Input
Amino acid sequence: MSFELPDLPYAYDALAPYMSSETLEFHHDKHHQAYVTKGNELLAGSGLEGKSLEEIVKASFGSNAPLFNNAGQHYNHIHFWKWMKKNGGGTSLPGAIASAIDSDLGGYDKFRADFIAAGMGQFGSGWAWLAVKDGKLAIMKTPNGENPLVHGAVPVLGCDVWEHSYYIDYRNARPKYLEAFVDNMVNWDYVLELYEAATK
Amino acid sequence: MAPRRVRGAVCLAVVASLARSLSVGFASPGRRGVAASLASGLAGLLSVESTRAYDLPDLPYAYDALEPSIDKVTMEFHHDKHHLTYVTNINKALEGKTQPALVDLQKTAIKDGAAFRNSGGGAYNHNFFWLEMAPTGKGGKPSEKLGSAIDDSFGSMDDFKATFEAAGAPGARFGSGWVWLVVTDDKKLAITSTPNQDNPLMEGVEGTPGIPILGCDVWEHAYYLKYQYRRPDYIKAWWDVVNWDQVSAWYEDALGGKAPTADSTTSAASLIGARKTSANLNLKLGFEANARYGS
Ligand SMILES: [Fe+2]
Ligand SMILES: [Fe+2]
Output
């Protein structure tokens, strides 16, 4: 199957003021679109045509860097849009996620601090993750287009810390962006959906 | 941070005047040797003194001087925030320890760990970046020697630029990093790119190692406010603000095996960075170019 750019699941201004419509327009319409376009060019003749996106991401990792970069970013961004919503974030998490965070990550406050620290600790471009590894939640970080799929885990929440994701709204203040992501944007219902699929 | 600069400058003035007065009028190699050992001895004292923090150098031009290629707000954030963070963090990592010239941190930075590689690299790379740019129309052009080396290596200036731009394109340097023109060990020019704040001086670096004489920052923070996703447009516009006079001077140094100290905009600071090479002292202090001094 070839890659396709999904529509945003909300209006471009839905996440303002935490993420502006200007940021979403460039990020979705230009950056994500470029990953889709380049990914399709690179997929042709790669021997991976017809595979699922997850399969392409895993199979190209370490063997076809250009394809991996674009396929990985396509996967990451498809989910990134769904990991956010208007009036998201905060501390009222679905019960199953809240208790998994308590038991696996030492509680919400520690999760919040560790997730933000992961995003801060990813030097350069990359992602901060909440993932399911060996049946448990874990905080991870990856550079550039990588994601937990290629490190034996399943991502259930990810925050894009490429500068393009926050430079218009936060400039160099990556911590402020990460705080706003966790406190005001996370769509915990979608996190729950992925968590249940990854642990069933 | 200021005391290092001030003390350094005072000492250097002494070194310079002593060295000049000793060298003037003496033609014999022996006399020159005396002047040189005195100069390098004093320079050695400077290195003992250099345990102070690295400075964030001022921009050598106004924040809006690179318009329209690079906008004022980008320069403000890039210099005042991003560069400052790298300088602050490498200073933290070296707190209480001897701080050698920034350029001397680069070789072993990857092995020395994240603070050296990321913050030490970022501090050096940005020092270098500000110096290798000049206000639009003020950057001169490549020296004849550099120009013909570019023609020999890449076909023409246009071919060189196209190859450099391709190396910095998002598909080639995916994510954050730099594109460089380097002088390799065998004195050849090469284009390479490095991830994040790595540079070609670092042992074990991705790409072609060498002495950088030109580098383009392709982190998104370098261009996002004006160019957003259009990185290729940024690199194309950046050519208009390259300081070819500086790049040509660095090319000369690189042919002699010397990496840009990129320490600051003042000659005093570049002398501090160069204290280990008598050949460079030689150049800076106006000694006869063919004189040889032991180091
Ligand atoms: Fe992104
Ligand atoms: Fe930069």
Q: What stands out?
A: Residues 21-82 of chain A form a domain with the Helix Hairpins fold (CATH 1.10.287.990). Residues B 78, 82, 126, 217, 219, 221-222 surround fe (ii) ion (ligand 2) (CB under 6 Å).
